[in-house]
Design a protein that fits this description.
It is built from nine helices and 15 strands. The chain is of the alpha+beta class. The strands form five sheets. The protein has a five-stranded mixed sheet, with helices on one face. Helix 1 packs across helix 3, helix 2 crosses helix 3 and helix 5 crosses helix 7. The protein is elongated, with a radius of gyration of 24 Å. The termini are far apart.
């Protein structure tokens, strides 16, 4: 059997559409339909029930799909093993990353990695909600916070501070807050995740803890928007110093309360299982560790 036919079968089962799977694989719908018919003839089994409105996998197709996934995964592992022996980084990385970190920090790092490894293919999903590894077809996720599921394989990439920040323009117009309590008199930009507003900011100095409930005229479920508002002088934000590293180095924003600490954030590279830990993923892990350390150095 042709492995490309098997891959098409899996993709069609996932998408529920011959047209969509053909588009994703860069072939015509007619070619995809012919390949599936060829596979059904070889198996002497109908894999899909086709109608003008719907494509539905058969019970036989469901059973074959399980074996097909395992076989393709095994072939990929074998290829990756050979590549590793030759010191070659190749294959596909399906990466999910949070919005601000993905768009503004990690993206140029990924471009650099792909230039260094031309046989690497990247599929990037950007968003602040945690991806479903199966439904979103993601192999690895870069996220803040240690994963709760102990069955996943997680590599710690960095531990970074969370800091309050504002633009020089905002501080010139409204004054520089000297103490975290002063935030109550400022316009603070709030971040939403899963309908929860992160509106209580915590700062510690000499063992004294300050929990400040902040208020402001803007909130967003996209962390990149919060950073952009702050850079534009709309208020004060509170985010990972890694997300802010480029703007801090460029002087677009100013870190507030440098003598205070906040609860640190850990950055993790997460795979759903050991099978996804390929040489390409290990390369990505090592590169991210080095790049994150350089990004926050001196801040």
């Amino acid at each position: 059997m042709n492995t490309s036919d098997l891959a098409l079968f899996v993709r069609t089962a996932d998408t529920g559409s011959i047209t969509a799977s053909a588009e994703q694989l860069g072939i015509t719908p007619a070619a995809a339909s012919a390949a599936l018919k060829r596979l059904e003839k070889q198996l002497d089994t109908q894999l899909f029930i086709r109608s003008t409105r719907q494509l539905r996998i058969t019970a036989e197709g469901e059973r074959f799909l399980l074996h097909c996934r395992k076989s393709l995964a095994s072939l990929e592992e074998g290829k990756a093993s050979l590549d590793a022996m030759r010191g070659k980084i190749a294959g596909e990385i399906r990466l999910s990353v949070s919005s601000d970190l993905g768009r503004n920090i990690v993206l140029p790092w990924l471009d650099e990695a792909m230039e260094r490894h031309p046989d690497l293919t990247m599929h990037l999903s950007v968003g602040d909600m945690l991806s479903d590894f199966y439904l979103d077809r993601v192999d690895v996720a870069l996220r803040y916070g240690e994963p709760e599921d102990s069955n996943m394989v997680a590599f710690q990439v960095a531990t970074v501070a969370r800091v309050a920040f504002a633009s020089p323009d905002y501080l010139a117009r409204f004054g520089v807050p000297k103490h975290p309590e002063d935030l109550r008199q400022h316009n603070c930009l709030r971040y939403l995740l899963g309908n929860r507003a992160y509106d209580t900011w915590e700062f510690v100095k000499d063992g004294e803890n300050h929990r400040i409930r902040v208020h402001g005229d803007r909130e967003s479920n996209d962390a990149d928007i919060v950073r952009r508002w702050a850079v534009a002088g709309k208020g004060i934000g509170f985010k990972s110093i890694l997300d802010l590293s480029a703007d801090l180095h460029a002087g677009n924003i100013v870190r507030l309360f440098p003598d205070y600490q906040s609860e640190p954030l850990s950055v993790w590279l997460i795979c759903p299982s050991r099978k996804q830990v390929t040489p390409a993923i290990l390369m990505l892990r090592d590169m991210l560790r080095k790049k994150c350390a350089v990004a926050v150095a001196g801040l």
